[in-house]
Protein: Hydroxymethylglutaryl-CoA lyase
Amino acid sequence: MIKLIECPRDAMQGISGFIDTAIKAAYINQLLEVGFHTIDFGSFVSPKAIPQMRDTAEVLEMLDLHHAKSKLLAIVANVRGAEDALHFEEIDFLGFPLSISETFQKRNTNASIAEALKTVESIQNLCESKGKKQVVYLSMGFGNPYGDPYSPELVAEFVEKLAQLQIETVSLSDTIGVATPELIKSLFAIQTQAFPSIEFGAHLHSRPNSIPEKVEAALRGGCLRFDGALKGFGGCPMAKDELVGNMATEVMIESLENQGYILELNRAELAESLKLANFVFNL
Structure:
């Protein structure tokens, strides 16, 4: 079964002008009507680092979750953020950004890789005590611009460490949009075969015209979990100066259906969500 993870948090976080809390909540409430598996709705991180997400707790209080089938995911960057997020029963998943790149790990969470792995372990223990799940994003998973070591074998070494910590979901992240279809296919094929107990996801940033071939490549590698953002907005503000957008969810949906997958989504609500995205992101 295909799992679609819609990421308004990733779409919003790099925008300099603050989006009103009520507008954020209205947009996420609309997304909850579509039927996505998970909504990556916010983050519990330093407001100095990501000022756009400083109102995540307030947004959560405004969400209508009574009839929602979608689960909620919040990004955290340290143990304190995880503890803050775990105060809310409504949150199902905590996402942590672990990087293959030492340089980017420092830029993104102000910690070394060794320190980040200890944080992953601590968050995993907290999640297990609270009945939550941790999703680890392996950022720079397909290469990086910083000259740090990178290879598919290095990715496998990181996944092995996560498997030892009993992490069940790992999203391979192309933070700056450098992955080729060939690398996407081979990397997912290697990981899914080597670690059958782990669910692997694709969090790929991409130029619009490359989305279909990247989706097909991930599918051929055994990936059934895809992150995206309507209209392809967003990108990581901690990566490069020029943001490479998320995979546009509507294009991913078309690509997946062209591959024969049946997606149980409310099309009318999806159309309304696309209209609201135009307003939220001033497209």
Observations:
- Residues 138 and 172 are 5 Å apart (CA to CA).
- Residues 237-242 have pLDDT under 50 and may be disordered.
- The longest strand covers residues 38-44.
- Residues 113-130 form the longest helix (18 residues).
